[in-house]
Design goal:
Elements: H1 6-22, H2 27-42, E1 46-53, E2 57-64, E3 75-77, H3 81-89, E4 93-95, E5 117-125, E6 128-137, H4 145-164, H5 170-177, E7 184-187, E8 189-192, E9 195-202, H6 217-240, H7 242-245, H8 249-261, H9 264-275, H10 280-297, H11 301-322, E10 337-341, H12 346-350, E11 357-362, H13 370-378, E12 382-384, H14 389-392, E13 398-402, E14 407-410, H15 414-437, E15 451-456, H16 459-468, E16 472-477, H17 479-483, H18 491-504, E17 510-513, H19 541-546, H20 548-561, E18 566-571, H21 577-595, E19 604-611, H22 620-626, E20 629-632, H23 634-641, H24 660-675, E21 680-682, H25 690-698, E22 703-706, H26 708-719, H27 723-727, H28 742-751
Parallel strand pairs: 9-10, 10-11, 11-12, 15-16, 15-22, 16-17, 17-18, 18-19, 19-20, 20-21
Antiparallel strand pairs: 1-2, 1-6, 2-3, 4-5, 5-6, 7-14, 8-12, 9-13, 13-14
Helix pairs in contact: 1-2, 1-4, 2-4, 6-8, 6-11, 9-10, 10-11, 15-26, 16-26, 18-20, 20-21, 25-26, 25-28
The structure holds phosphoenolpyruvate and magnesium ion.
């Protein structure tokens, strides 16, 4: 038989395979035809397809040239024999003397002892091994690189057949797609406590490729060229954007990215796959599969990052080729999902159905990023900084988010799953024991009363006042309903919402914070320019004062909702007194307007400021004359005090909130408020952590505001604490040189049986 050159043959081969794929025959019959076609094309005596089955077994599914009784009988475990080795290493193997290879495993039922040479490739789907395709020859044949490449391309088509046929049941297929990876537990950082068990859903959905094979490589190359040009254009546009063009790290990253996008080697590999008979998207996917398989084996961090860049680029290129990605939120999701994302904005989290969203795993993240805060408000366990979560977790994997121990279990064994389900049950008991605390006073052992309030942002949160027995809402983040809306809510819509919140609180006080948008809290319908340093940029009261209609409407809505009721309002990010005065003036003019419009008067109006910019702490006397209360926003305050971005994974945990400097700063503010009898509370995330809350009580705070799930643990701590004994540790803070008092405070708690 005449040899067909692999290059031209590859396309012909794929086109013949495509005919088989399009045929009506049963899947097994099609596999039989495929092995026969490949064997004849390769002039090989044997062609075999092994499929990975549940239980990590490679089963011989189809073969030509091997004894027919071995089909569906011969089974190898992952790593066993040459076939098992190809699967476990996810790399091709071409051997002219296969039998002398140390991994060769002889299976008498196959009758393969007469074949000397073997070339095999992994059948990859989404970078994951689902089987092995191999050819064998009687003679000591040396397979060329091109031949191996052709086998790899062919294997992609087979991967599709395995995935889309009924060769394996859906359940088994689902299990198989997860194989090649054993259960793993990865440590990250705790962003919210609690345990969740659910099915993994990627926030960024994968792109579906419907057509893999084409016999028109010229047209496919043109499609690729066009998509590459579009992708380059899009990257150029990013580079030209005003904020990037100025330079800085952002620009460097994009420049490098652009360089990769123009990488001739990468593009040549894609073109090669097109020449071999794949569609443009099939070719990009093939090269991406190869990259991913290499990625899994690479341990060098630098190379892993580079491979990651190529993976990202392939994703972009596929977007240009196939069109935009559908978001999961439009799809039917399972009942219990754990969301996997690199990072996400708070509004994006709110897009998911709250009843099915059980947990969140982030590759990045820090405890004070707003997505973590929202997750806390929703009581969703979150673990952040799980390296390569997106890579390691397949959609549909069972995931356990152990927020308490900052660990994520991927594909846990039944035993681990069972343990967690038991823990969940005992946690439910613990929650029930907190529920028992609900009506008990929040008083220390030395009889000091501590007010506990909630941080809220959704109407549904208001109910938590009743479940937790909280004294009220110490921070209602009004931007959250704005983030949850498709457009700017008008006065009527806002006032209806505020009224319902007030009604549902049963007369307990609520502090409404005016809009704090900007930073990482962007509104989907508001396209404001990107800033280099958004946390310190145009946000919160700065936006409100520059767009007075916004705040005017909000005041109008709050006043309308408060007829005959109490109203407390506070302004975020006040940096200087004049900002407070200007905002207050707008509020007063709205109050006057309401007077002329026959609205019922407000029962009591309290106006406060958030103290979250250090500069304001140096204007306390002037501030205290103006405000009815102060609420410390420690999340922002600490990021500005330490010059440490609250959202940056690298540094957000670098400085401890329990540092002598931070506590000393807070103590001086509390002392000034106490001297002027101005109520002060703290509503940053530290208030909700029992140890931190204990320190805050030690420096004089008597009112804290936190996520609903923290009320129980913090109350338990309060009821086991004697503040008098604690104060000594917190004296002379300015003289303490330790970088944190955490250990000392922990020792205190353990020596005095304080439940932290
Ligand atoms: C804070 O900064 O501590 C705060 C409560 O406000 P936010 O987290 O919403 O910025
Ligand atoms: Mg803040």
């Amino acid at each position: 038989m005449e040899r067909i050159s692999p290059m031209s043959g590859s396309r012909r081969l794929l086109s013949r395979l495509r005919d088989v794929m399009a045929g009506e025959e049963a899947s097994q019959e099609r596999l039989n035809q495929i092995v026969a076609i490949i064997a004849s094309d390769f002039v090989a005596e044997v062609c075999s397809i092994y499929v990975l089955r549940a239980g990590e077994v490679l089963e011989l599914f189809a073969a030509t040239g091997l004894a027919s009784q071995s089909i569906h009988k011969t089974r190898l475990s992952l790593g066993e024999g040459l076939i098992g080795r190809i699967a476990i290493q996810a790399t091709p193997l071409a051997l002219s003397e296969a039998q002398s290879h140390p991994d060769f495993a002889y299976r008498p039922e196959t009758g393969e002892e007469i074949y000397q040479s073997l070339a095999g490739v992994p059948i990859l789907r989404g970078g994951r091994v689902t089987g092995v395709l191999a050819v064998q020859n009687r003679t000591a044949r040396s397979y060329t690189e091109e031949e191996v490449e052709t086998l790899e391309t062919t294997a992609m088509v087979i991967a599709e057949l395995i995935a889309n046929s009924k060769l394996l049941s859906q359940d088994e297929l689902h299990e198989v797609e997860k194989l090649g990876l054993s259960p793993i537990a990865i440590d990250g950082i705790r962003l919210n406590r609690g345990i969740a068990v659910g099915e993994a859903v990627h926030h960024e959905n994968r792109i579906q490729i419907s057509k893999l094979v084409s016999d028109d490589p010229i047209a496919e190359q043109l499609r690729l060229d066009q998509a590459v040009a579009e992708m380059h254009g899009a990257i150029d546009q990013l580079l030209e954007a005003k904020d990037v063009a100025k330079g800085g790290e952002h620009k460097d990253i994009l420049e490098t990215y652009k360089m990769f996008a123009e990488d001739a080697g990468w593009l040549a590999k894609i073109s090669e796959a097109i020449k071999n008979g794949l569609t443009a998207e099939g070719a990009v996917d093939k090269v991406r599969n190869d990259t991913r398989a290499r990625f899994r084996k690479q341990t060098d961090r630098y190379f892993r990052e580079r491979l990651h860049d190529f993976d990202d680029l392939a994703h972009r290129l596929l977007q240009h080729l196939v069109g935009s990605i559908k978001k999961h939120k439009n799809l039917k999701l399972s009942d219990d999902i754990v969301l996997i994302a690199r990072n996400m904005g708070p509004a994006e989290l709110l897009d998911y159905d709250r009843s099915s969203l059980k947990g969140l795993v982030l590759e990045e993240g820090s405890s004070t990023t707003h997505v973590a805060i929202i997750a806390r408000a929703l009581d969703i366990p979150v673990v952040g900084r799980i390296e390569e979560a997106i890579e390691k977790i397949e959609a549909g994997d069972t995931i356990i988010v152990d927020g308490d121990n900052a660990q994520v279990h991927i594909r846990p064994s039944d035993k681990i799953k069972e343990t967690f389900i038991n823990t969940l049950a005992s946690q439910a008991e613990r929650i029930a024991s907190y529920a028992a605390l609900r009506d008990l006073p929040s008083k220390t052992k030395d009889n000091i009363n501590v007010e506990l309030h909630l941080n809220a942002g959704l109407l549904a949160d208001v109910q938590s006042i009743h479940h937790t027995g909280a004294d009220g809402i110490g921070l209602f983040r009004t931007e959250i309903p704005f983030m949850n809306s498709h457009n700017f809510p008008d006065v009527r819509r806002q006032s209806r919402l505020y009224e319902r919140i007030m009604q549902q609180s049963n007369g307990k006080p609520i502090i409404f914070r005016t809009l704090d948008v900007g930073g990482d809290k962007s509104l989907p319908y508001w396209d404001n320019a990107k800033e280099e340093n958004p946390a310190m940029g145009w946000r919160a009261i700065r936006v409100s004062l520059d767009s007075p209609t916004l705040i005017r409407n909000q005041f109008r809505a709050l006043i309308r909702a408060s007829q005959n009721r109490r109203l407390s309002i506070m302004f975020p990010m006040i940096t200087e007194i004049s900002e407070f005065d200007k905002t207050r003036k707008i509020l007063d003019s709205e109050l006057e307007r309401a007077n002329t419009q026959n609205y019922l008067p407000i029962n009591s109006l309290k106006v406060g400021a958030m103290l979250e910019v250090p500069a304001l702490a140096y204007q306390m006397p002037a501030l205290l004359k103006r405000v009815d209360f102060i609420s410390v926003g420690s999340n922002d305050l600490f990021q500005f005090l330490y010059a440490s971005d609250r959202g940056s994974p690298k540094i957000s945990e670098r400085f401890d909130t329990l540092s002598p400097a931070g506590l000393s700063f807070l103590k001086s503010i509390v002392e000034q408020c106490d001297a002027s009898k101005t109520p002060i509370s703290l509503c940053g995330e530290m208030a909700g952590r029992p140890l931190e809350a204990m320190a805050l009580l030690g420096i004089g705070f008597r009112k804290l505001s936190m996520a609903p799930s923290s009320i129980g643990p913090v109350k338990e701590m309060i009821r086991s604490l004697s503040i008098n004994k604690l104060q000594k540790i917190l004296d002379n803070l300015q003289d303490i040189t330790d970088n944190s008092l955490r250990e000392k405070l922990r020792d205190f708690a353990s020596n005095h049986n304080v439940k932290i």
